[in-house]
Amino acid sequence: MATAAASRRHVVAVPYPGRGHINPMLVVCRQLAAADAGLAVTVVVTEEWHALLAAAGVSATLPDRVRLATIPNVIPSEHVRGADGVGFVEAVHSKMGEPVERLLDQLERRPDAVVVDTYLTWGVAAGAARGIPVCSLWTMPATFFLALYHMDRWPTVDGPEGEEGQSCKSLDQYTPFPVLSSVKCSDIKIFRSLALELPMKRVAHVFSNLRKAQCVLFASVYELESGAINGISQVLPCPIYTVGPSIPHMSLEGNSDKIRRENYSDWLDAQPKNSVLYVSFGSYISMSSSQLEEVAMGLHESPVRFFWVARDKATTTTLQQISGDKGLVVPWCDQLKVLSHPSIGGFLSHCGWNSTMEAVFAGVPVLASPIGWDQLVNARLVADEWKIGINLREQRREDGIVGRATISAAVTKLMDLADGDSLEMRRRAEELQEASRSAIQEGGSSWRSLRSFVRYLAEGKLNAVETSQ
């Protein structure tokens, strides 16, 4: 294996310790190595994440010039962080920075740059203190970045008007600022809730430090979020680069129609084209047991067959019993390959950004069931701006639950290939699929942006002292 010391340039990548952040960071690192033969990348993860990536076979597939380095497990385990999300955020903020800084000081080859997840509040300062240029990677939609960046312009939800003279007359209205066109007042009420008070303070800290970064990379596609990306370029004092979709599309090359060596492949292969609804609610934020039961019963009552990925064997067994022979429930799958299978005709999703981008890349319409954070905005992009799906959150009862009858009706409509609305969503999904795939092809927007960044790095234009503010 080639070492960082043997390479002409060395980049250290520090992802936020969560699957939705580590996966896109690894994709970006692969892209950097592929775009510059003289570049080596060291990715810093906890010992636990090193083991998880090895067990999943990810480590073995990394290019020679992308290697993993570890820090001790100074934060709560990935297996329990969902039980105390706020505590996990605080641990990452207060405990993870010091061992990362020690590792930076001990590396055989001094980094030419550090690519650090935007949510790591100490990341920019750690690089600046060592005179190392810092590039921030934002792994969520640019639209959500812009919304958080303009927190000071959010209208008031309750009480008198704010400094901008704007207040929400209804929680169902979109915010009055064009840059926040995909954010509703009900979303702002959630972001300002007591439960998110500490995380929002950390976010404010992140954005106050961001101006000291030398550039910002976005795991998005310009054609999908041109308005937000143009808006960001006007407010940030540093270059920005869109390099998405930062999903494992490399695994599809030469084999997009078949899934090999998996126990569910025969089942999928036996289903008619576009007849199966793929169901997954991510790996972190939990759906309530009552809502999960409504989803299971709604699927059971619909005429649609489904392929559901649950998180563990116990949940898989329970959901399979409820679902009966209407579908197949498994504890894990290669999501992008499944979404790209010809039998898949729709995706019931929590709308995390990686899942949303994979649905777009596969050209699959989405039934959105967002739970929190950026998922709320992602679901609105899916249903309202891109018009490739239905937002179930808009159909909640007073108790906040989406009932089984509503779910069954929405599933039926999404998967009905004779329904006019469904056909139009599929047409739009095909357009966005083409845009996202073209972006990473030679000459595409993300291809050009990535190579511009690599050239920026190779020419030594990243200068921590000159551009820090």
From TrEMBL:
<keyword id="KW-0808">Transferase</keyword>
<dbReference type="Pfam" id="PF00201">
    <property type="entry name" value="UDPGT"/>
</dbReference>
<dbReference type="InterPro" id="IPR002213">
    <property type="entry name" value="UDP_glucos_trans"/>
</dbReference>
<comment type="similarity">
    <text>Belongs to the UDP-glycosyltransferase family.</text>
</comment>
<dbReference type="InterPro" id="IPR035595">
    <property type="entry name" value="UDP_glycos_trans_CS"/>
</dbReference>
<keyword id="KW-0328">Glycosyltransferase</keyword>
<protein>
    <recommendedName>
        <fullName>Glycosyltransferase</fullName>
        <ecNumber>2.4.1.-</ecNumber>
    </recommendedName>
</protein>
<dbReference type="GO" id="GO:0016757">
    <property type="term" value="F:glycosyltransferase activity"/>
</dbReference>
